[in-house]
Amino acid sequence: MSVMYIEGGVPLEGTWRVQGAKNSVLPILAGCLLTREPVRISNCPRLSDVDAAVDILHHLGASCSWEGEKLVVDARGACETSIDQGQMRAMRSSIMFLGPLVARMGEARVSYPGGCELGPRPIDLHLEALSTLGCQVQEQEGEILCRGRPRGGVIHFPFPSVGATENAMLCGVGADGDTTIVNAAREPEIVQLQQFLNALGAKVTGAGGSVITIQGGHTLHGGEVSVLGDRIVAATLLAAVAAAGGEVRVEGVDWRHLSTVLQLLEQGGCRVRSGVDSVWLRRDRYVPLRGGGCITTAPYPGFPTDAQAPVMAAFATARGTTIFQETMFSRRFGHVVGLREMGADISIRDQAAWVRGVPRLHGARVTATDLRGGGALAVAALGAQGQTILDGLEHIDRGYQDMEKMFGHLGAKMIRR
Ligand code: EPZ
């Protein structure tokens, strides 16, 4: 297993165009099952989670091929109705295939999905939504069998779950009748899923707001989509500049998708300028960040849970105490162990991490235990004094495409060996 060697304390300088968003491309890949014509996906990130989705598509009978950074999916030949347990466990988004698979085949058999260990991650809202749309859902000894043609219906989510909203949209598009989703998640990735489905001939409206409506009964054709820029990779990059100092322009991301993160970094003393498709951030490496306040994660447009860990890493060396309150997942402070190894002063009480800024972190041997936690340890290492050896790269590779190339381009000394 390779590890990352990171030499800290080097300011980051330059411009970087962020990769396509993992959390956008994964539901799009599942949505390719809804058409029998080819779909071309550009700006598709090369990630192990994308490989896992491609693996599922192949298994179901679709063909997938890379044309440079474009992934072409042709699901004409899809005829399989079940997904292997190993494939389901490879990532959380494997569950996203359930809705489109039952819509296409009238039957789908899956098991519980895997993914980052962030505490319990039930799929009850996914299953209830499919059941509301008219599918019969049976759970038996870890297996989920979903049968029947979806008719459409009105789904009321008690919580705006991202994945359940996407699954409901994908199933609703394949349904015979109309679907309304109330209290839908509002993330930019949901808006992109709507754009993608409509580009294929679906009739979906309302994404970005709390009520999404879908006119069922349309046959989808092929089409093209360009995956939107990854706002969490952008947030990680900006947090790294906040930690290490320097001046970086991140291109390919809409600053409005990052506004809560940018506001916090600005309050901490970073200079931020936002363009149409880019964000520029500067932090004087001789002036520490200013901590203080309480950051509470929330569904979009609130502070993203996925940015909590990388941003916390930057505030580990801020002046003052910053509190991070995690409301989305019960175990999303896995990175704190590694940050403490590097000299951070962080205590956890219930769902809050109290980060008392220290003058500097030092290099250490640390292990990523989840994707964004891995991003946090990389951010900390870039700002720390001395060398960090970062283990657990399999987590990082799920969502950060060539992390060492990205930071290396900006002057960081980060080598994978
Ligand atoms: C998506 O996960 C993202 N993953 C996550 O990103 C992200 O952290 C999360 O949304 C929140 O923004 C993808 O898009 C692939 P949820 P998802 O359903 O869909 C509870 C990353 O690092 N819940 O909105 O799984 C759930 O337990 C990843 O890129 C139920 O109770 O998130 C959690 O507490 C990690 N029942 C809350 O809702 C359900 O059926 C939010 O989950 C579904 C969810």
Notes on the protein architecture:
With 417 residues, this protein is α+β, with helices and mostly antiparallel strands. It folds into two domains: 4-18 and 229-416, UDP-n-acetylglucosamine1-carboxyvinyl-transferase, Chain; 22-226, UDP-n-acetylglucosamine1-carboxyvinyl-transferase, Chain, CATH 3.65.10.10. The chain contains 14 helices and 23 strands. The strands form six sheets. The protein has a four-stranded mixed beta sheet. Strand 15 and strand 16 (278-283) form a beta hairpin. It is elongated and about 60 Å long. The structure holds ligand EPZ. The site of ligand EPZ has 25 residues, from helix 1, helix 5, helix 6, helix 10 and helix 12.
Task: Sum this structure up briefly.
32% of the residues lie in helices and 25% in strands. It is α+β, with helices and mostly antiparallel strands and 417 residues long.
Task: Give the strand tally.
Answer: 23
Alpha-beta content class: alpha+beta
* Helicity range: 25-40%
Cofactors and ligands: ligand EPZ
Distance between the termini: 9 Å
Return the domain count: 2
**Could you tell me the strand content as a percent range?**
25-35%
CATH class of the largest domain: Alpha Beta
- Please state the second-level CATH architecture of the largest domain: Alpha-beta prism
Mean pLDDT: 96
The rough form would be described as elongated
How are the SSEs placed, and which strands pair?
Elements: E1 4-7, E2 12-17, H1 22-31, E3 39-42, H2 48-60, E4 63-67, E5 70-74, H3 85-89, H4 98-105, E6 107-111, H5 124-132, E7 136-140, E8 143-147, E9 153-156, H6 162-173, E10 179-182, H7 188-199, E11 203-205, E12 211-215, E13 223-226, H8 231-244, E14 246-251, H9 259-267, E15 271-274, E16 278-283, E17 294-296, H10 305-315, E18 321-325, H11 335-341, E19 345-349, E20 352-356, E21 365-367, H12 371-383, E22 387-391, H13 393-396, H14 403-409, E23 413-416
Parallel strand pairs: 2-14, 3-13, 9-10, 17-18, 21-22
Antiparallel strand pairs: 1-22, 1-23, 3-5, 4-5, 6-8, 7-8, 10-12, 11-12, 14-16, 15-16, 18-20, 19-20
Helix pairs in contact: 1-2, 1-7, 4-6, 5-6, 6-7, 8-10, 8-12, 10-12, 11-12
